[in-house]
Amino acid sequence: GSLPSAEVVDDALSAAYARFRDDASGRVADYIPALAEADPSLFGLSVADVHGSVRQAGDASHPFSIQSISKAFVFALVDQALGRESVRRRVGVNNTGLPFNSILAIELNHGSPMNPMVNAGALATTSLVPGADAADRWDFVQQGLSRFAGRELKLDMRVYTSEAGSNQRNESIARLLDSYERLGWDPIQTTDVYTKQCSLSVTTRDLAIMGSTLAAGGVNPLTGDQVVDASVCRDTLAALATSGLYERSGDWLYEIGMPGKSGVSGGILTIAPGKGGLAAFSPGLDPAGNSIRGQRATHYLSGALGLNLFASA
Ligand code: GLN
Hints:
The protein has 313 residues and is of the alpha+beta class. The protein is built from 13 helices and seven strands. It has two domains: 6-64 and 203-304, DD-peptidase/beta-lactamase superfamily (Beta-lactamase, 3-Layer(aba) Sandwich), CATH 3.40.710; 69-198, 3-Layer(aba) Sandwich (Beta-lactamase), CATH 3.40.710. A five-stranded antiparallel beta sheet has the order 2-1-7-6-5. A two-stranded antiparallel ribbon has the order 3-4. The protein starts with 5 loop residues before the first helix and ends in a 9-residue tail after the last helix. Glutamine is lined by residues 67-68, 100-101, 119, 163, 170, 198, 263-264, 289.
């Protein structure tokens, strides 16, 4: 299978944009000071197929920090580098049923970070990134995510500085995991690389290309670069299906029927395996930290483009 024709995708994007353009529901994240300044009226949509064609609507060129969507791609890179069983044993692939920055989830599970898409599991994953020192490890992450995007992704220094200055909770999660011997590296340096990966600046266009690389067995459709193996894409999509929208992952799968990943700046990336990537951006969030308008627009697109993986026809 493949995505419908460019005309059909354009019509669906226009319809989704028109339907939700006045819907600025939700609350902008404010626990990271720089994110509190986001304009809730922003709304962008992009769809990229596995051949590199990108269609879009609204604020698709507006840059924002990737936040938790980075977790999917760092997981893929570490899965590639260390092997699936090693990462599964050390990080896990089951949903916590609890918020993304839960400390209780770690305690309830005897120190397990549970899955790579919550902060504990993402910190554990980032601690496994190969490299001799902090600079090497950051280079691995930045270069790897840039290969998924097909262009060099840059740090948003304002967001990075803001989160680094208010990072007590993530540092605490990393220290707690370290006390359970669940980290592969120093907890404070791990948290710093994690904070940087969350502060990479992207657009919905970048995210759609990154998603289409996962949809295409790891081959970036713009550059032809084999970023990770097809088996790593399969592992990553499975982890997203269980946990990509945190404690709302079941509702998401029930509504949209595809693996997805959200971030607190308002991005949501959805992958149609073998077909392409869909990215939405709008800063208003639900209580779990998922863009409300992004979920609604993706739901519309999943239906209009016939992408629900559980549909028989
Ligand atoms: N950088 C954010 C944090 O660690 C990412 C969280 C998110 O996007 N849900 O809190």
